[in-house]
Each structure stands twice: as structure tokens, then as C-alpha cells.
Amino acid sequence: MEADIFEYHKEEDTVDFEAFQGGKQKLIQPTSLKDPKLEKLKEVLVSWINRTLKQEHIVVQNLEEDLYDGLVLHHLLSRLGGVHVPVEEMALTSTAQIRKLELILEELDKRLGLQDGSGIKWNVKLIHNKDLLATIHLLVAMVKCFQPELDLPPNVKVDVVVVEVGKSGIKSDIQTEVLTEERDAGSDSLSNTEREDPIEQLLKLEAHKVNTVKQAIVHFVNQNMSTMGLQVADVDKQFADGVILLLLIGQLEGFFIPLHDFNLTPVNPSEMLHNVTLALDLLNDTGLQVSSVDPQDIVSQDVAATLKVLYALFKKHKGNK
Fold first, then answer.
1. CA–CA dist 72, 58 (Å, integer)
2. Side-chain half-sphere of 56: how many Cα atoms within 13 Å?
3. Cβ contact 38:179 at 8 Å
4. Residue 124: CA count within 13 A, CB half-sphere
5. What string of DSSP letters covers 79-92?
6. Residue 97 burial (CB < 10 Å; 0-12/13-18/19+)?
7. Sheet of strand 169-178: strand arrangement
8. Closest Cα partner for 251 from 273, 282, 216, 290?
9. How far apart are CA 317 and CA 224, in angstroms?
10. How far is it, in rounded angstroms, from Cα 71 to Cα 34?
11. What are the helix and strand counts (H, E) for the chain?
């Protein structure tokens, strides 16, 4: 279908035809940019990046504006893939940014299994030019490779104008670009079950099975807290003020938490919330992310939230004793 490219662009958004002479350029239609599904996908990706890079104190607000220089992609590759590309931390000039992106994308494409060039929907030029379509394609591929359990919004599609400039002139066409795949009802139900947190699944079982797991976790906690003269008997209540949780994290991770950083004898919900929030931040800093747990849930003695945190620690450290 032919599209009037000059109607598509606002007067100030002129197209640099020379920039892609002999090639193709994809431009997202304005109507698709306002699609709630696309907005949700962008929100999920921004949130994922910020959670992943919290320890580095990197905060992303806009996918187009914050990823073009390679800094965020460099840290994501290091954090998720365990790969450190020897590039300068801050690339200030356009030339330095492009060179940095070349090295990072080369390594990323290898990790994504795309080193042969097939199926790649991004390149250095597109990312550096703040191309939203290419940036989202890259981030979605990284999620699928490094963190496939992350639940991206399904069936996100956008209409794009494909512009081709050649010797014969300018050709344009409107196509549909798929950003995330569709899930049918059956597979969606199955995948949701498979993705469900193991503690959520546990709490649906019979009471005696839940108690068996609780006892195993209590035994694990007490093994690690015995040297401090502390003992846990009630998982549901004893972690609500955050004190034992903080001491347990310090013991397991091998670091000392200064006493002035938390309330050793909290007397009100505000102090308890401070302790638990600090505990969850420390877990995140050690790379142990606990999904869908709010500090207030633990303070409120929410069994599922407390067990999720303790189970995550148990899984990571159970072989250390």
C-alpha cells in the first residue's frame, strides 16, 4: 500500500533521504506510537532495565534518549551476560559513542546467537540515531535471551512506513511490525502456570505440605543464625520488623551492616518498614531479585511475601552449610 511520506512527517521532522540512500528506513506511524500496548511494553522494558541496573545507580526514563550512547547497553551486557567489553565508561563524542556501540553490539549479537547477521533488526547507526523500533527489538531479544521469565506484554504490533530511496526515486509502503509474539489462550494458561512463583504454587497445596517447606526454611535460617545466638520459631511473624532478615542477609552474604543503618529495636511500623526496605535493597544489590514483593507486605506479616524472600535466600545458599 502506497503511503504519502510527506503527510506522515510533521514539518519539523524532515527525513534525511541521503542518510539511507540505497537502503530502507522504517518509521513508526504516529497512531501506533499512541497504542496502549506499545506504551505498556516500553514501561515494562524501562522498569526491567532500572531493576537490573539499580546497583549501578543507573536510571532510564526514555528508551530512545537514554540508550543511544552505549552506556546502558554496556552495563546490561555486563550484569546479564557477565561480559565486560573494554570500552570507556563515558563516551562523550559521537565518534566515541559509535565505536563503543560497535563493540557492544558485536558482543551482544554473539550472545544472542545472531553473529551471522540473520534476523538482526538493529544496528549501530539505528541505535545511535535513537531509533525506537530498533531499540525495542534489541531489548526484547535481550529479555528473551537473558531473562526469559520476564512477562512481556504479548502481541504488541506497530504499523510502520517503510521508505526506500533509490535511483528511480522514493518508494514507501505501510507494513505491520511484530514486537512481541501472540500467545493463544491454551499456551498462555500453561506459560502462566510455569512462570508462577514456586511459593504461590506451594500455598495452594495442603497445609501439611506448606508446613513441611516452612520447617525446612526455619531449619536453614537457624543453622545460619545460631552463631549469633538467635533462633526463629515463627516464620510468619519474626521477620516483620526486618531485624532478623537483615542479620541473616549479612551472615549469608558475608558482610556487616552498620548498626546505625537500621533500627535494631524498631518500635513502630515506620522503623520496621525502613528495615525491610533496606533488606530488599541489599538483596537486589547482591543480584538476588525477589519478584512482586513489597516491603509493606512483609511488615504486614504477609506469609507469601516473607516466604518468597526466605526461599530465594534458601535456594542461593542452601549448599553452604
1. 8
2. 19
3. yes
4. 14
5. HHH-------S---
6. buried
7. 24-28, 157-166, 169-178
8. 282
9. 10
10. 28
11. 16, 3
Question: Which three cell numbers, joined as nine digits, stand for 70?
Answer: 552505549
Confidence of residue 276 (pLDDT cuts 50, 70, 90): very high
Cell of 54: 539499580
Rounded-to-integer distance, Cα 217 and Cα 248, Å: 12
Residues 31 and 275: their CA atoms lie apart, in Å, by: 46
- b or e along 107-125 (b: 16 or more beta carbons within 10 Å of the residue's beta carbon)? bbbebbebeeeeebbbbbe
- If residue 215 lies in a helix (H) or strand (E), which one and from where to where? helix 207-225
Nine-digit cell at 208? 501439611
8 Å CB contact between 290 and 280 = yes
The span from the CA of 248 to the CA of 246, in Å, is 5
Q: What are phi and psi of 227, to 5 degrees?
A: -70, -15
Res. 255 pLDDT band, cuts 50 70 90: confident
Question: Letter for the amino acid at 306?
Answer: T
DSSP, collapsed to helix, strand or coil, labels residue 281 as helix
* pTM exceeds 0.85: no
pLDDT tens-digit readout, 200-214: 777 777 777 778 888
Nearest partner of 123 among 113, 110, 138, 144, judged by Cα: 138
Cell of 272: 520496621
pLDDT tens digit sequence for 212-242? 888 888 888 998 888 888 889 888 889 999 9
- Backbone region of residue 59 per phi and psi (left: phi > 0; alpha: psi in -120 to 50; beta: other values): beta
Cβ proximity of 56 and 80 under 8 Å = no
Q: Are 10 and 33 in contact (CB under 8 A)?
A: no
